[in-house]
């Protein structure tokens, strides 16, 4: 059956920045986090969510598609939608469900922007800028000894890399998203430390890989290391408590 005109109108508004799609995403994610369904369980149908949440199918599809991109659900053609990964209920201790989507979108943006910035930093950094990056990394290393990295130290490392690009737009971008980045780091670092003491060590190793690639002037490795780090950060944000390997 074809979507109604109303559904088509809502479909046009169901882009990644749609407040209605954000709301549905948050509602479904909250149900997954706190509900009784386990990993592998089949979720309600699109029509069920339409009735429960009072929205059209295009809106539900956008929300489910984004949950799929975040690795939380898996949509099987002709079968339905299933829970692929259930975030820890401890996530609610650090962030409101309504904020999770914003933080994930921030990470999605950072993966691309900071990946490019790291590659440019590897090519362009001056000796003075390399000293600043090393100073920021040494601060991270000192904190990690106590199994704790502060959001401010993490942010300083990433900002020092942006500065080393010599491009004002990368520098300004990091300033523009500073508030969201600090919120994101606060949640992700607390989650990492809360779940497994070894995770802070792995976070430091990821930063070290970025730093070493910049030191050696390898833009390809620097870009890859940054993207791997931020992609793993995104996964850590929504991983289950028992998922301790990333």
From TrEMBL:
Source domain of life is: Bacteria
Output the PROSITE patterns linked to this UniProt entry.
HTH_GNTR
Name assigned to this protein? FadR/GntR family transcriptional regulator
- Name the SMART domains on file: FCD, HTH_GNTR
What keywords appear on the UniProt entry? DNA-binding, Transcription, Transcription regulation
Gene3D superfamilies (alphabetical): GntR ligand-binding domain-like (1.20.120.530), Winged helix-like DNA-binding domain superfamily/Winged helix DNA-binding domain (1.10.10.10)
- Among the Pfam families in the record, one is GntR
Q: Does the keyword ATP-binding apply?
A: no
Q: Which residues form the HTH gntR-type domain?
A: 18-86
